[in-house]
């Protein structure tokens, strides 16, 4: 493998029902940052059926080029044709870096594609940067420059590992939604468009979709909420979450929770924040009766303002909190709700 042949930072621009997923824009933001020290371009790979109309949005969020693979076989996500499309793009255009969202689709697609193009993939990265590998080379050891350094929690979140892929290309990573920042869209930006179709031959490996049943939810996605009122085991029961809901109602917030709450069956998994839940970045995050385990803080520490309420003044949540209230949540939360009612119109 001649590594010099591989150029450019590529992003799998996930779309569902011909609507781009937020992760596509987040990855473009990161790709732009990575492309600068490499002096290279950002390319979005847009795969679907009738998706050409989405090209301009990708340009506005940072794509210099968009490779469009448009085929009726790609209308709904199916592993085989999508893996064929993305691995064919990689074999044809030889990117140096490929970023994929760690969504349900990306988690299925990324590893399969990396195996097909015979390279490595680091899953669930929280930090991506360009640097030297190994960081501290011992005398006589070759240090490679301009490598993609991919950082992710390891061993159940108890340590942080930085992984590189120095001998193969492309360097592939999946990134969880909500971790990377989108750029402010540049209105009217245009990208070079390349249409590419590797050909699709439906065979008995293609899954036939008989029906799609959409789940309807009346709760706000916690990843979109500006204010989160998050409760932990300290809340004590499912019924006691009514107290957190009352607070959320007054300030226009959404209730979320720690994993202990989900494990106890008090709230559904879709409301869980953290390493095995969702990564959130609201303007205000209330952590009520949450100890602040690393697996929880990994999913919320980027919030603008963190307010912790805990009866234990040595709880680790206070290490990441901007404001802390030490005391019994059963007394503090109703008082806070009453006081806020007076000021919030
Ligand atoms: C691989 C792995 C992945 C994980 N992923 C996640 C994840 O995604 N999200 C997540 O949250 N966790 C995750 N965990 C679990 C995590 O390690 C913690 O066990 C969990 O976050 C603890 O939840 P908690 O803070 O609600 O409960 P606890 O740790 O039990 O803390 C309860 C807190 O409430 C306080 N408290 C109790 N009563 C009151 C009161 N009356 N007033 C005020 N404060 C009170 C206590 O002082 C305590 O600090 C994961 C663990 C592993 C191993």
Outline the structure in words.
The chain is an alpha/beta fold and 345 residues long. It has nine helices and 17 strands. The chain has helices at residues 22-38, 55-60, 79-93, 104-116, 241-251, 259-263, 294-297, 317-320, 329-343, and strands at 9-12, 15-16, 19-20, 42-48, 65-70, 97-101, 121-125, 127-133, 144-154, 159-163, 171-175, 192-195, 227-231, 254-257, 284-288, 305-310, 323-326. Strands 7-11-6-1-4-5-12 form a seven-stranded parallel β-sheet, with helices on both faces. β9 and β10 (159-163) form a beta hairpin. α3 packs across α4 (104-116) and α5 (241-251) runs parallel beside α9 (329-343). The longest helix has 17 residues, at 22-38. It starts with 8 loop residues before the first strand and ends with a helix. The model has no long low-confidence stretch (mean pLDDT 95). The chain binds flavin-adenine dinucleotide (FAD). Flavin-adenine dinucleotide is lined by residues 156-157, 232-234, 258-260, 272-277, 289-291, 293, 295-296, 299, 309-312, 315, 328-330.
What's the β-strand tally?
17
Subunit organisation of the chains: single chain
Major β-sheet annotation = 7 strands, parallel
The string of secondary-structure elements, in order, is EEEHEHEHEHEEEEEEEHEHEHEHEH
The side-by-side strand order for the widest beta sheet comes to 7-11-6-1-4-5-12
Stretches with pLDDT under 50, minimum 5 residues:
none
| SSE-based structural type | alpha/beta
Count of alpha/pi helices: 9
Strand content: 25-35%
Pfam families: ETF (PF01012), ETF_alpha (PF00766)
Protein name: Electron transfer flavoprotein subunit alpha/FixB family protein
Domain Electron transfer flavoprotein alpha/beta-subunit N-terminal: 9-215
Family: Belongs to the ETF alpha-subunit/FixB family.
